[in-house]
Write a structure and sequence with these properties.
This protein is an alpha/beta fold. The strands form seven sheets. Strands 1, 4, 5, 6, 8, 9, 10, 11 and 12 form a nine-stranded mixed beta sheet that branches. It has a seven-stranded mixed beta sheet with strand order 16-19-22-25-30-29-28.
Length: 429
Amino acid sequence: MKRVLAIILGGGAGTRLYPLTKLRAKPAVPVAGKYRLIDIPVSNCINSEIFKIYVLTQFNSASLNRHIARTYSFAGFTEGFVEVLAAQQTPENLNWFQGTADAVRHYLWLVEEWDVDEYLILSGDHLYRMDYRHFVQRHRETEADITLSVLPIDERRASDFGLVKIDESGRIINFSEKPKGDALHKMHVDTTVLGLTPEQAQEQPYIASMGIYIFKKEVLTKLLKEASERTDFGKEIIPDASKDYNVQAYLYDGYWEDIGTIEAFYHANLALTKQPQPPFSFYDEQAPIYTRARYLPPSKMLDCQITESMIGEGCILKSCRIEHSVLGVRSRVEAGCVIQDSLIMGADFYQPFAERMSDCETGEIPLGIGANTTIRRAIIDKNARIGCDVRIVNKDNVQEAERENQGFHIKNGIVVVLKSAVIPDGTII
């Protein structure tokens, strides 16, 4: 794996995840109470013994830079690194990144300097655990120029993905980006070729690209230099390359979720609380997900009723009821609160006398959730100050709303309270 260089694509402005991406890059969005999205692909690389990792981003990268600098430092005896490469102007290219391939093209001069055989291209907004060693091994065994990681998928979700068709050897012979109607049915394949049982193949008759690729070094260099007008891997570079190059498919059969939208992000986080077997688990000693060590005290729970939930470190919870929710680090929930089906991201710092704050009479709204507040089906971003007797329940069942000046948005019926927003006492949303 020393001959592999990983490039993680941080994505664009993250409009589908807005307002969580208002003040941060998409890979820096918190997930599962204590991690950030970037921790997933970086940890997969480390567990796969791939230690040369670049992260490409161009929007709000300050918090991402800070997180990576504090989290990932390899010993001086290896050439391992995790570095953020932000979009920049050069004499050859005065533009911002125009797409996934264009982002890599901007920094081709840098990645070419490494003496490696393959480039592993990853996305920064997926939730999955994968040993890339098997992926690289398949790429080398088939003598492929490009290998795509794919997964079988049912008809209901097929139109949301780029689909591929393969021949008996696993070589990709056709592409279609998010097809619908007749175009979708033309991408129907017998997925028993990938090793599925006839029953599974009937349920999942399509093959979706996961947006994870391996390129031979010289092939990627040639493709990016030859066609400067092609800016996207999935839509342009790889479909065009399949005519002249050996493009192979690698079947991934584990849990994988694209959490690039508010709805998908919300459901993927709450699914972590499921019992007895969540679809994705952070409790795997063989392949841990790494993140920044914060050295926080244990969480304190005083007379609380908590069911099917995950609670981060350093939280203070008083006489409250929490059901099917995820609470991030340093969350503070006062007496009489009810939190259901919600994601509370917590805080970046403690206020003075954090343990004693529970007074609704002073008029000041401290960090956290004030007394007698009810929150249902919501995402509360970091450092939010929710007053006393607040009800965040989407009582009118609004599906879409933008209330930036009031500190919240509603996406797919999910209330998203902005980072550092202040919601006054008695507010009803």
